[in-house]
Structures
1.
Amino acid sequence: MILQTLPAALAHWHLFKIQGQLDVASAPAVRTALAHAARMDDAHLLIDLEDLVSVDDIGIRTLAEATKELQARRPACRVAFVAPPDVAERLVAAGIPNDAVYDNGQRALQALGAGQAAA
C-alpha cells in the first residue's frame, strides 16, 4: 500500500491515493494517515482507490470508520472517493454515502468543482 498526499486540482482539497492492498495489514496505516489528515488543515479529502490490487472487508470497514471519525472531528470536511465499481459498492455498504463515491477522477473533480480533467 502506498499513501501519497498530492496537490489536488481543486483549491482546498488534498488527494490521498491508496495503491496496492487495502486489507487487515494496511488498515492501521490507513487509520493513521486519515487521523493525520484531520490535523493538517481545513482542506477536504479526495481518496483515490483506483489502483487497489486487493481489498478485504477489514480494509473497507477501517476506511469507512476512519472517514467517519475524521468528519466527526471536522464536520465541515468533505470526503469523496474515486473507486472501481466493486470497491464503490463495498464502501456504500459500509456506510459511505453513495453521492461521495465516483467511478473516475475526472467525474469526481467535475462534481467537486474543478470542471476539468485530473492529471
2.
Amino acid sequence: MSSESGETAPDPKGDPKESREKKFTVNQANGTLPLVRRIVTDIVEGHKGFHSARRRFDEIKGGISGTPTSEEGTELRHLEEEAESRQKKVETCLEELEMVGCQLKDFEMGLIDFPSEKDGKPVLLCWKLGEEKVSFWHPVAGGYSGRQPLPI
C-alpha cells in the first residue's frame, strides 16, 4: 500500500500520469465513499435519463414522415434539452470523481476503481454502487472479473 498520506513520489522512469496518480489505502478509499456514493448515484441516474431521452427522441423522430407538427417539434426540443442537460450533469460528476482521485469504470453499475499498491505494484481497489464499503481489489489488468476480496 502507499503511505498514510496516500501520495506517492514521482517515478522518473515510469509513466508521468501514473506517478502523479493518487494512491489510496483501503481506509482512505472508504473515507471518500459518502461523497463518491452521491456522485456515482447522480452519474448512474443521469446516464439512464440521458439514454431514455435519446431513445424517446429517436422513436419520435423516426415516426415522423415529413415536417414535424408543432407538438412533435416541441417534444423533440424538450427531449434534446433534457439529454443535453443530463449529459452535462454526468460530465460535471465525472470531473468531481477525477478530483477525488478515483475512476469510473461502468456507468450502469456505478463501478469505481481506486488506485492503490500491493507489494510496490499498482493495483485497484474496487467498489460498486450498493456495496457498503470497499471490499475488493484487482490487478490493474484484471478488471471487474478479477475482483478478489480484501485484504491485499
3.
Amino acid sequence: MKVKSSASLFRFKSGITALLVLASLCCHTVNSQDNASGMKYRTIMVLAKIEQTEIKKQFEDAMVNALKQKGYNAIPSYANVTAEDLGSTEKFIARIDTLKVDALLAFTLLGVETRVVNTPADL
C-alpha cells in the first residue's frame, strides 16, 4: 500500500518548480517572434501531458508566463482544449486552428524521483 505524504507532495511540487525555472531559462532568447521560416508566430499553445490537474495547470501557467515575458503570445491547453478535442487529430487541429495556434509546446512527465538527504541541523 502506497501512502502519499504531504512532504513527498511538497518535494514533487518543488521539483516541478525547479523544472519550470530551468525550462524558462532555456527558452529561446531572441527578442523577435520569428520562427525558422521568418514568419511571426500568432499563438503558442503549451500542453502538458500530466494527469494531476492542479500540477498540469501550474506547469502550463508557468510556461505561458515565461513565454509572455519573452514577448510571445502563449495560451495554456487546459483552458482552451477539451478532452473531446484531444480525442482525435482532426478535432484537435480544427480547435487549435480556430484559436490561431501555429506552435505547440508539448511536455510529458517521464517520472518522479524522490530522495531523502540528511544534513546536520546547524547548517
